[in-house]
TrEMBL record:
Keywords: Repeat, Ubl conjugation pathway. Residues 538-562 have a biased composition (Low complexity). Gene3D superfamilies: Single-stranded right-handed beta-helix, Pectin lyase-like. Residues 476-489, 522-534 have a biased composition (Acidic residues). InterPro entries: Carb-bd_sugar_hydrolysis-dom, NosD_dom, Para_beta_helix_rpt-2, PbH1, Pectin_lyas_fold, Pectin_lyase_fold/virulence, SCF-Subunits/Alg-Epimerases. Pathway: Protein modification; protein ubiquitination. This is Carbohydrate-binding/sugar hydrolysis domain-containing protein. NCBIfam families: para_beta_helix. Residues 196-324, 348-508 form the Carbohydrate-binding/sugar hydrolysis domain. It comes from Halovivax asiaticus JCM 14624. Residues 492-501 have a biased composition (Polar residues).
Length: 569
């Protein structure tokens, strides 16, 4: 199979098998799998390694730290596991089992587990981020008069509703350490305080600050965290690594806030509210991670730009991934299958590059763009989804190319109120409704696609104007090959529409369209059916062996359409 083949690509199989030993996730694995040598003395450095044997431990010096055994946060025993730090080794309050406040630190769990056993704020129902309900609530007629406010989408979805505000996703300051227990928390010691430097104005938490305010080169690896509100959190860090960990039954498995250039690799997150959350964090790399069976998104990016999501598997979550106001990310060779809502969703997110994505067997859409611009989707496998293969709503200037959108319950590709998009070299066959469907969509280019064997039309336009429908094949559809309904000033050129159940090309109450150089043979009714439409022009069309004849024009005026060398009006 060539790299360019989108057919049954099963992308990720090779990398998944290659990385299974590292992730320990062939069957969702056992999380961290590495083991180190036993240490005989507690809290003493031996060969440069410091052993941690209790919750409430604060790391405030560079170095290499290891867990001696499993750690339990148990309020019933009296050995500083209760308030977790108030009576701890450093006599320094923390709401984390382990808190790292220094740069150049490695924490190796050696395969051991941190168990919080505390009450969780979640998992919450993902209904507060039910994107499909927003799509249904949009009045497409409002697009025509300009009364629809795109920014109002921000008010339509309350991201904090699913976390009681603990992640701060609709505000500035996350409060995860205030509302619940954290397995491992990495943050500067003065995080959240207003401080001054060199007589100049300091910064408040939530403002980015410069790199001197952040921790750097912190690694957390080979660790399991269960039943904590947050598993592993990096706050105001740069250049860190989160590697070969597993989180279970948390509100958030892995959380990055204002943390850049961090690598998250070969981690597992299961049975939680959220798998991985990046909030106001940029230039991070997430690779070979496996969020599964979570009640919310496997991956959630909020105001997170310029990150790389590569070769991850996000299955059986509410969503495979959601990008919310997150721009210029690279999403490559991921699997986002069998999720309760959508495989990959982009909301108000621009300039992202999505390639070689599997988005199959999701209960709603494979890929969904809402209010998003200038994104590129290529070599996407969006098949067997419960709604559409790819859905664009209020989305502009996106490029969809070399996509397979087959066997979806509704449409292969569906555009609602979307402008200036390009759909090229897409295969949209065997869908329950239309292969490619445009509603209230303007100035789009639909070129070089295959839209065959669909349950309704191959290509359907409803109240969609000034689009270019060129060089497509729309054969063997149950209804029409190409259908224009109340759609004006479109160009339909060079298309093949054969053996459809009704007409090859139909125009109904559609004015000022151009039909030229199309071929329409062996259809059940007419090659071309023009009803109550005005000023249709075109030449060089052909039609043969259609059930009712080459062309019918009924109603309307000003039509001049050449078929088989004869002009009909």
């Amino acid at each position: 199979m060539s790299d360019d083949d989108t057919g049954d690509s099963r992308i990720g199989r090779r990398w998944y098998l290659r990385s299974a030993a590292a992730t320990g996730a062939a069957a969702l694995g056992t999380g961290a799998v590495s083991a180190g040598e036993d240490e005989e003395k507690d809290h003493k450095k031996k060969k440069g390694v410091t052993v941690i044997d209790h919750c409430g431990y604060v790391i405030d010096e560079p170095g290499h730290y290891v867990l001696e055994s499993d750690l339990e946060w148990n309020n019933d025993n009296g050995n500083n596991n209760g308030d977790c730090g108030c009576n701890g080794h450093h006599h320094d309050h923390t709401h984390a089992c382990i808190e790292i406040r220094a740069s150049d630190v490695t924490l190796d769990g050696q395969g051991h587990t941190i168990s919080c056993y505390g009450p969780l704020n979640g998992p919450r129902s993902p209904s507060a981020i039910d994107l499909d309900s927003i799509d249904d609530s949009i009045d497409l007629d409002a697009v025509t008069d300009g009364s629809l406010d795109l920014d109002s989408l921000d008010d339509s979805i309350d991201l904090d509703a699913v976390t009681d505000g603990s992640l701060g996703m609709n505000g500035e300051r996350p409060r995860l350490w205030e509302v619940g227990r954290v397995g491992v928390l990495v943050r500067p010691h003065h995080h959240g305080k207003h401080h001054k430097k060199s007589g100049k104005h300091g910064k408040k938490d939530g403002k980015k600050g410069d790199s001197r305010d952040r921790l750097s080169n912190v690694t957390v690896k080979n660790l399991n965290v269960e039943r904590c509100t947050t598993g592993i959190a990096f706050v105001h860090t740069k250049g860190g690594t989160i590697y070969d960990n597993r989180t279970d039954e948390t509100l958030v498995g892995y959380y990055l806030y204002r943390s850049d250039k961090t690598t998250l690799k070969s981690n597992v997150a299961v049975y939680s509210g959220f798998g991985f959350v990046l909030h106001k964090s940029s230039r991070n790399t997430l690779k070979w991670n496996n969020p599964a069976d979570n009640w919310g998104p496997g991956f959630l990016f909020v105001n997170a730009d310029g990150n790389a999501l590569v070769k991850n598997r996000s299955w059986r979550n509410a969503f495979g991934a959601i990008l919310w106001r997150s721009d210029d990310n690279t999403i490559e060779r991921n699997e986002m299958n069998d999720n309760d809502f959508v495989g990959l969703a982009l909301v108000l997110s621009n300039g992202n590059e999505i390639s070689r994505l599997e988005a199959q067997d999701n209960d709603e859409d494979g890929v969904y763009l809402l209010g998003s611009k200038k994104n590129t989707l290529s070599y996407v496998l969006a098949t067997d989804n419960g709604d559409d293969g790819v859905q664009l709503t209020l989305s502009y200037a996106n490029a969809l190319k070399k996509i397979r959108a087959d066997d979806n319950d509704d449409d292969g590709i569906d555009l609602d109120a979307s402008k200036k998009n390009t759909i090229a070299k897409v295969e949209a066959t065997g869908n329950g409704a239309d292969g490619i469907d445009l509603d209230y969509s303007y100035k789009n280019t639909i070129a070089g696609n295959i839209a065959n064997d669909n349950g309704d039309d191959g290509i359907d336009l409803d109240n969609s104007h000034k689009n270019k429908i060129k060089n497509n094949t729309a054969n063997d559809n149950d209804d029409d090959g190409i259908d224009l309904d109340e759609s004006d000033e479109n160009t339909v050129k060079g298309n093949t529409t054969n053996e459809n159940g009704d007409n090859g090309i139909e125009l109904d109450e559609s004015d000022g369209n151009v039909l030229s150089k199309n071929s329409s043979d062996d259809n059940g009714d007419y090659g071309y059916d023009v009803e109550d439409s005005n000023d249709t022009q075109g030449s060089g069309n052909s039609a043969a062996d259609n059930g009712s004849g080459p062309i019918e024009i009924s109603g309307g005026s000003g039509n001049e359409i050449e078929v088989n060398g004869q002009t009909y009006s």
